[in-house]
Automatic annotation (TrEMBL):
It is a multi-pass membrane protein. This is Calcium/sodium antiporter. The keyword Transmembrane applies. NCBIfam families: calcium/sodium antiporter (TIGR00367). The keyword Cell inner membrane does not apply. Residues 3-143, 189-329 form the Sodium/calcium exchanger membrane region domain. InterPro entries: K/Na/Ca-exchanger, NaCa_Exmemb, NCX_ion-bd_dom_sf.
Amino acid sequence: MSSPLLILLGLVLLVLGGELFVRGSVRIAERLGVSPLMIGLTLVGFGTSTPELVTSVQASLAGSPGIALGNIVGSNIANILLILGLSALIFPIAVPSAALWRDGVLGAAAAAALLAVGLAWTLDRMVGVAFLLGLAAYLVYAWRQESATTGDHTAAFEKAQALEEVHPGGLAQHGPVPPGGFWRGVPASIGFVAVGLALVVGGGGLLVEGATTLARSLGVSESVIGLTIVAIGTSMPELVTSLVAALRRHADVALGNVLGSNIYNLLGIGGATALIAPTAVPPEIAGFDMFVMLGVALLLLVLARSGWRIGRREGALLLALYGLYLFWIWPG
């Protein structure tokens, strides 16, 4: 099978498997009496990042750090420049000041932390534990913030809300479990989780194999493939959910989805990858692309702060910058 077909099949399996995994996990958690808020912040939030997680871990285990780190860094760049740019073109985004200073600044700080690791250290288990603890602290804060019902939603919450835009009322039941009904539907939900995990693992393997083969055949580095094809492909769930939210004129949810995804990518996927499969950071990514990732996160803060909105003109600018970035890193 050719490498483009391997990549395409891998992405399809990743997206489908991630969908089944999230659905099954949510249903089981509901049967266990877990609150909808906690389900949204953890299972839905992290579950929608499963394609990036599995791809980066498998690439690291396969000795392809360019794909592993390129996927994380490239996804964050694409989330802001590509996904947020397209969303703003569809419908201008109003920016809540509290969300910007909390979630936007945290995303920029996490990008700076990964950059510091890339320049001065390596992605080892100590870094992995630190990143995962940082994500856990953020989720605890988000849970307390949402439980206070102040109306000031965190990006972690809106990341889950963005998925509900695609599956209105269909992802979680959010209703009480009927008496004696714990096991009703549980076997099917367990099956969803098992099949979803199998598809995600298989899809990740095909994607990594196809990406490495494509890099060799084109004579480009694995880092470039990871930063572009792999990163855009694994970001497809975020792209779909953000665009659907923007089309329904819930563009603020699209912003929260992007900010939340970036935080999960850096602290969650970066941390889990370092913990499971420690890897060196490719110097070309640390020396350029991580600086771009941090610069894009800071640019978002500046654009959003100007008038507390991201309009169509800013959306066009973000898309133009993404085109320029792709042109710059792809070998001529």
